[in-house]
Backbone:
């Protein structure tokens, strides 16, 4: 029927007697019927049924009477075809429905296999490895890399034992502090999602039920939020919801307001999180936070390394060492006039310059260079007998009265041993440590110019082999 209709209409548009009534010599379709385009003024000259009108109204789509019967028969056959297709589909649906459970299980299995294959391909692409999860909050990342940074990536090593609950990362701008926070957060979520992480085998992460992050500047003119207000709004929400099974990541804690008040507020927030939160990692430029963290139990400093020779960050993370912002060097590297930098440096007081020098790493320093640092030894950060080359001013100042510090440590060790503090008991509180130090002999509790001479018993005790203190072990 279709071929018959097309032949009749072809003759219609080629016949000189009828072609003159057409807008153009073509055959088209409207509503499933074959029609020809007829000019509006010639409507009465062509007998047939109008199925459509052009948008301009100048053309009518007419089905000539000569093909109307054939069009009707063709429409009937199309309807029967549709009914037959529907009947076949119903029969197939009934057949499939009888095996619905098996097919659903197969589909679910295929989805799982596809997901596993996708995870394997992602792992191969990132050169990732399996990560061990623990329930005590320990974080030990070896050569970890941010999963979204392409090209050459400087890996980081980060270790937080269960008893170390707060880490404060300092160092220059563009040095990698924020990237470190994001790396820890992303790798934690990847591991808990069953993905391999871009780190060396043997890395471990705590299983945190919640991960909170305040990273970036969320200031908003529409919402009347300044930089400080935006950060504080996020932090308030975090403090309301964070618990012992949470990981909290805070970028530039206390920034955006008066430095003195911001530093004090940051210290209070860190203390609050130390008491009630699982693990907290924060970045800052405040020297007050560096010194605040230095001697507190359960806290640790870290820094991103900066090469003052090339004025470039190395992006390496140094555990146990506070960093230096190097704002003057970076500003001069970016093109700020030297006389402005020199004038800015003159505005710093002598005490401020000393703090900036002591609580900072001014030059690249190998990890083994602070082996004699009592703070590093206490936290198990370096192997014994490591080289002392490249020691910073801070470390030299710490070692100046090392004998006195060692005597204090021996008295503290003895007192703690008497109290029989074990691994499974809570760590000694700050108040208890203060009471212990206050009870020491005067020559031990003060900083003399020269350490007291050691007795033969003390010398023999030091000569005996000592078991190294492991990271996170009670002193």
Residues:
């Amino acid at each position: 029927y279709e071929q018959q209709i097309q032949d009749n209409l072809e003759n219609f548009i080629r016949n000189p007697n009828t072609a003159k009534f057409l807008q153009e010599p073509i055959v088209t379709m409207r509503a499933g019927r074959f029609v020809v385009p007829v000019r509006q003024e010639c409507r009465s000259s062509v007998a047939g049924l109008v199925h459509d009108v052009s948008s301009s109204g100048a053309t009518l789509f007419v089905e000539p009477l000569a093909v109307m019967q054939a069009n009707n028969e063709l429409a009937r056959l199309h309807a029967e075809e549709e009914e037959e297709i529907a009947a076949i589909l119903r029969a197939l649906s009934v057949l499939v429905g009888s095996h619905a459970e098996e097919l659903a299980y197969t589909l679910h299995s295929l989805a799982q296999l596809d997901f596993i294959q996708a995870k394997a391909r992602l792992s191969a692409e990132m050169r990732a490895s399996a990560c061990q999860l623990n329930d005590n909050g320990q974080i030990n990342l070896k050569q970890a890399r941010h999963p979204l940074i392409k090209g050459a990536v400087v890996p980081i090593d980060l270790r937080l034992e269960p008893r170390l609950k707060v880490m404060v990362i300092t160092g220059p701008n563009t040095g990698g502090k924020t990237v470190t926070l994001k790396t820890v957060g992303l790798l934690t979520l990847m591991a808990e999602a069953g993905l391999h992480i871009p780190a060396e085998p043997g890395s471990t992460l705590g299983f945190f039920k919640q991960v909170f992050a305040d990273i970036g500047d969320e200031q908003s003119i529409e919402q009347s939020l300044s930089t400080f207000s935006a950060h504080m709004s996020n932090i308030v929400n975090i403090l309301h919801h964070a618990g012992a099974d949470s990981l909290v990541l805070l970028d530039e804690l206390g920034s955006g307001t008066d430095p003195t008040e911001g530093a004090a507020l940051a210290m209070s927030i860190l203390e609050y999180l130390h008491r009630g939160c699982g693990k907290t990692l924060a970045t800052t430029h405040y020297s007050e936070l560096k010194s605040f963290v230095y001697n507190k139990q359960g806290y640790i400093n870290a820094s991103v390394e900066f090469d003052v020779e090339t004025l470039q960050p190395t992006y390496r993370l140094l555990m146990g060492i506070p960093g230096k912002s190097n704002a003057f060097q970076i500003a001069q590297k970016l093109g700020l006039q030297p006389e402005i930098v020199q004038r800015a440096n003159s505005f710093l007081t002598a005490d401020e310059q000393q703090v900036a020098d002591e609580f900072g790493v001014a030059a690249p320093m190998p990890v083994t260079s602070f082996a004699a640092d009592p703070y590093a030894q206490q936290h198990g950060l370096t192997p014994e007998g490591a080289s002392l080359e490249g020691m910073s001013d801070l470390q030299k100042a710490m070692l100046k009265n090392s004998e006195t510090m060692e005597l204090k440590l021996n008295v503290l060790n003895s007192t703690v041993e008497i109290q029989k503090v074990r691994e499974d008991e809570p760590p000694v509180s700050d108040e208890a440590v203060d009471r212990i130090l206050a009870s020491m002999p005067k020559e031990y509790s003060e900083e003399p110019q020269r350490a007291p001479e050691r007795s033969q018993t003390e010398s023999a005790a030091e000569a005996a082999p000592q078991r190294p203190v492991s990271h996170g072990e009670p002193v």
